[in-house]
Amino acid sequence: MPPPTTRLTMAQALVRYLAAQHVSRDGCENRFFAGAWGIFGHGNVAGLGQALEQYAPQLRYYQSRNEQAQVLASVAYAKHRNRLATFACASSIGPGATNMITGAAVATINRIPVLLLAGDIFAERIQAPVLQQLENEHTQDISVNDCFKPVSRYWDRIYRPEQLITALPEAMRVLTSPADTGAVTLALPQDTQAEAFDYPDFLFEKRVWEIPRNRADVSAIKRAAEWIRASRQPLIIAGGGVHYSDAHDMLERFAERTGIPVCETQAGKGALAYDNPVNLGAIGVTGTEGANLLARETDLVIGIGTRYSDFTSASKTAFTRAGVRFININVAEFDAYKHSALPLVGDARVTLEELALELSGYAVADDYRARVAAYNQAWDAEVHRIYNLEHEPLLSQGEVIGLVNSLSAPGDTVLCAAGSLPGDLHKLWRTRDRKGYHLEYGYSTMGYEIAGGMGVKMADPEREVWVMVGDGSFLMMHTEIVTMVQEGIKVNIIVLDNHGHASIGGLSKSVGSDGFGTKYRYRTDSGHLDGETLPIDFAANCASLGARVIRAADREAFSRAMAEAKAHTGGPVCIVTEVDRRQRVPGYESWWDVPVAEVSDSESVREARAAYEAYKEKESYYPSESL
After folding, report:
1. Mean pLDDT, consecutive 10-residue segments, the chain of 627 residues?
2. Peptide bond into 535 cis (omega under 30)
3. Distance (Å, rounded) from C-alpha 293 to C-alpha 318?
4. By CB atoms within 10 Å of each CB, which of 93, 125, 424, 541 scores lowest?
5. What integer pLDDT is reported at residue 222 of this predicted model?
6. How many CB atoms are located within 10 Å of the residue 277 CB?
7. Of 187, 201, 200, which Cα lies nearest the Cα of 149?
8. What's the rounded Cα separation, in Å, for the pair 465 and 461?
């Protein structure tokens, strides 16, 4: 006897299915989709638009101002929820769909789940070419949505309404996978969205997807314990996997009992409190002095949930001791095998638990533990110095970070993504809460900040969120201030006006140039952009979008602005302050590979090239050890 069915359009069936999906880990269950973002056009208004209106009580709809921004907000939400919840993001066809491609890349590179429902051209084709359709003389089976393929972990085009029955479980399998998650893209032809089918009722029953804690191979764990016992100066690198597996307590116990120091990647920052004596803080290009000094000397690196980006490895110059070995704890086999490591493919928390049992009674030498604690204290003194520069006439960026860190509550969250701020925050922010530091640095997306801050606030409404954004990123994407006003979402947005792209300006100088194309200036008769500074009024811009705006020109005014922002309710607050782009936070014992022109008429470029070639000699593949 066939199962009972309900006749629905493809879009209606899709929305009902999403509303019924739940996840569970460690006995804690929640709905997986917190709602659906969407901007409607002819490619989805009569399909998904109608369905979201019809089933609004089951799946709340949110209106965004930019398709990329809605994906970025969803990524931030899912990241803050440790990948246990996310949003669906709907677009029309053509430019609306391709606006989401950057967001898809952000999700996939950072291993964050988000569902993209991209409107597509007609499946029946008789209308072609329709408005916004890409034509191809070699095939009719293509649209701009094929561009999502390389930045999606799962991609499908739903030509027939019944294809949902098999496509949706596959989409959920990927979205809920600890190892394979990322962007999932379903391309939805606009006519198919509106077609009806007799869907089996079981498709809309509540389904709970269990998030597993996969365990590493027992023999590999025993061998890892042998390597650690034989090591003289082991070093832990904590990545985002510590957060996603909720391994903070286990890592803290493991590090304190063994004395093995912990360094943090951008995604892993906050794994330990900043003042824990075993915490060396940031590592790599934007790392602390102590972390980078010990990285050079370590004979064993224990990576936990990290993918070893070039910022973490300092472009393969961080770990220079001959014969250095790697143990990688990672739920993704792809990352666990990097650097010819001994791979412990499994969940970070349970793998640390089982490794700790094998290391019962083990601890590093007392002098090594004392050296780590001394580095921790020395770095805190350096942070204090930068926080209190008393730089005049303008504040330095480090001072602004210090004011936000000192005047915010321990349970608040700071959020950033691009420019010079991420590096300074990585070094300087004193993490006091596991979710107190939120950086999107896998893709370092300009424009992530404001949309991302909204996503974090939606994930944790009781938490105060402080978005720190440079003027360059602000100009890239600030329209979700309007969405926050519409929804009454309170986010504190700190706009740092340094009259251009200060980060790349500094990088330009380091490679022998003079900040070419990085300052916001008028063009002069010389043909260059070297005139007066552009009179951009960021405060007026924020106010025009409906935000509460506060201007702050010095330390005292900024402190008052922080207090006023904390007291404000009912919508976004923007604090606008000018900072001195020339007063920078220095680098500490590290290097980043940015190629310098091999030939040039400029003496400064030639000098930079000579220094570059000297550093290149330190760059190498890590030794491959027999496993």
Report:
1. 93 98 98 98 97 97 98 98 98 97 98 98 93 92 97 98 98 98 98 98 97 97 98 98 98 98 98 98 98 97 97 95 96 96 98 98 98 98 96 95 98 96 97 97 96 98 98 96 98 97 91 91 94 96 98 97 96 97 92 94 95 91 56
2. no
3. 9
4. 125
5. 98
6. 18
7. 187
8. 9
Give the DSSP H/E element, type plus range, for residue 566: helix 555-567
Max CA separation in the chain (angstroms): 83
Rounded CA gap, 625 and 627, in Å? 6
Say if residues 264 and 283 touch (Cβ distance below 8 Å).
yes
Sequence-separated (6 or more) residues with CB below 8 Å from residue 56: none
CA 566, 567, 572, 578 dihedral sign is negative
**Sequence-ordered list of residues with C-beta below 8 angstroms from that of 209, at least 6 positions apart, any chain:** 21, 22, 23, 24, 32, 172, 176
- Rounded to the nearest 10°, the torsion over CA 170, 328, 282, 464 is 30
**Length, in residues, of the chain:** 627
Write phi, then psi, for 358 (nearest 5 degrees). Answer: -70, -20
Cα–Cα distance for residue pair 40/54, rounded to 1 Å: 15
Q: How far lies 90's CA from each of 40, 41, 108, 447, in Å?
A: 8, 10, 18, 19
Beta pairing, strands 465-470 & 492-497: parallel
Pairing of strands 262-264, 33-38: unpaired
The neighbouring-strand residues paired with 114 are 183
Nearest to 121 by CA among 49, 188, 194, 51: 188
What is the C-alpha separation between 78 and 557, in angstroms, rounded? 35
CA angle 322, 363, 437 (to 5 degrees): 80
Distance CA 605, CA 482 (A): 45
